[in-house]
Amino acid sequence: MQTLSRTRTRRRQQRRNRLWRMLKRMLLAGTMTFVTCMLLGITFLFATEKGEELREWAAGTLLTTQHDYWAPYTFLPEEKLEELRQQIRNPVVINSADAIAAAEEKPKVTEEPLPQRELIEIEEIDEKRGNYYFKGKLMYISDPKRVQLLVTTRTDRGDLLDEFVKKHNALGIVNASGFHDPDGYGKGAKANGLVIKDGKILQSYNAKGSETALGITFDGKLITGNYTAQQLIEMGVKDAMSFRPQLIVDGKNLFADKPAKSWGIQPRTAIGQKEDGTIVFLVIDGRQPGHSIGASMNDVADILAERGVVTAMAMDGGSSSMMLHNNEAITKTSCPYYRGRFLPNAWAVL
């Protein structure tokens, strides 16, 4: 009996030893695989042109968020980081010409009646650019006089887009100004930069000097540039706000010859106008792998230019980017709250 017991004990020990040896081999193989992948990744990021390009994309993306302090960890040279910062903080500003006529000002070229256009038309965006992809929506508004800036009346926080819609019976709406947003928890009660509503100056100062004004005149012309609030009033502007950068001025795509990496890849909102007066809202979803990563400023400018937009500017982006049509969200916000963020103002179709 003792011999049988010893035999069973020895067999159990042998099985344990075999299992332990197998585990050690698996751990060793896993460690070697991890180290190999890490070394290959480091080699790719720091010893190839493609890797450097990815680090520049990452730095540009971080520099346009509340977490710009992470940008140095992309290990780009400080002069390259400073170059990216300057492209973001101090974009070239060009005052747009007052060249877009309202519909009734355009000369008649035919006696035949033109087909009646819908007030709002929606176009879906679904594109792949290089190593990233994005989805979004374009909203075309045929009557520019129906586009207005809605401003929150609250002092404790801003309004959600659907709250703006409910208060004003808006047919379509997108976010507009940026706002103080510490660590992504800003309440959106007060916009950054100037604000004009119904021809009255609500904020005349520009909290961030590099931000650019976008205004719509009483006769439906969209204007962008480095203007004071009083200058805009004298130009007949009804509603205006501030952000940056300009995308298209007088038909010229300002990002056609600029590196896309400086602004990174993010959710985007932009507003523009075509030569026939049509106002265009654009929202690109982002920060959602499997759905939409986001777009560069170059992508946004290209999309608008390809559709005949002659004047355009970016609005606040990131988790603020969102579009509603008929009180339904037709884009997918990256904000954890499905209704989006509290906002100081919004561009709407009334």
Task: Describe this entry's structure for a reader.
This is Phosphodiester glycosidase family protein. Residues 169-349 form the Phosphodiester glycosidase domain. With 350 residues, this protein is α+β, with helices and mostly antiparallel strands. It folds into 2 domains: 2-87; 95-349, no CATH class. Helices cover 28% and strands 25% of the residues. The chain has 6 helices and 17 strands. Strands 1-2-13-12-14-10-11 form a 7-stranded antiparallel β-sheet, with helices on one face. Strands 3-17-4-15-16 form a 5-stranded antiparallel β-sheet, covered by helices on one side. It has a 3-stranded antiparallel β-sheet with strand order 8-7-9. Helix 2 (49-63) crosses helix 3.
Please state the CA-atom Rg, rounded to the nearest Å. Answer: 27 Å
Estimate what percentage of residues fall within beta strands.
Answer: 25-35%
Give the strand tally.
17
Q: State the helix count.
A: 6
Which assembly state applies to the chains in this document? single chain
**Overall geometric form:** elongated
| Computed structural class | alpha+beta
- Distance linking N and C termini: 95 Å
Instruction: List the secondary-structure elements in sequence, H or E.
Output: HHHEEEHEEEEEHEEEEEHEEEE
Largest sheet: 7 strands, antiparallel
The chain-level mean pLDDT equals 85
Low-pLDDT stretches: 101-107
Give the neighbour order of strands across the main sheet: 1-2-13-12-14-10-11
